[in-house]
Amino acid sequence: MIKILFICHGNICRSPMAEFIFKDMVTREGLADKFEIASAATSTEEIWNGVGNPVYPPARQELKAHGIDCGGKRARLLNKEDYEYYDYLIGMDGMNMRNIERITGHKRGDKIYKMMEFCGLENDVADPWYTNCFDVTYNDIEKGSKAFLKYLKEEGKIDA
Q: Which residues contact 66 (CB under 8 A, 6 or more apart)?
């Protein structure tokens, strides 16, 4: 079982989009039973009195437009123990990467990656909270997810 945690600032746009895009992708390839996939935030901004906000409506609508349901998902905070539990912690932008390192106490490399680096890029996945371009974010995450899945196959982590 490969355990993956996608991470962004608030866990209401990019990281839940990545969680559900990747879940959909591995399900369509018949690989869902080989993965545990989740997402988390580096900030408590979308978590009130211990309860996380649901996926932001425009992000939910973008997923739905691609036939992907994210019902029931609520924001949750990344914690230090997540580094030990998950095999891959994948951040969406440079600030996420710094916060992941700060929260987990570990550096980028062994388990911590930036989403677009699987495409050979150092780009950030733009935050649609600010850009309002949920389709662009979806496309970047889909591209990164395909490259990540290809990476896992090439590394022999799953059967190709």
A: 21, 24, 138
Could you tell me the fold of the domain covering 2-154?
Rossmann fold (3.40.50)
Q: Is 127 a catalytic residue?
A: yes
Catalytic choice (14, 24, 76, 124): 14
Q: pTM above 0.85?
A: yes
Q: Which member of 8, 13, 24, 70 is catalytic?
A: 8
Residue 160 pLDDT > 80 = no
**Domain parsing of the chain, residue ranges:** 2-154
- Nearest residue to 16 (alpha-carbon basis) of 30, 37, 1: 37
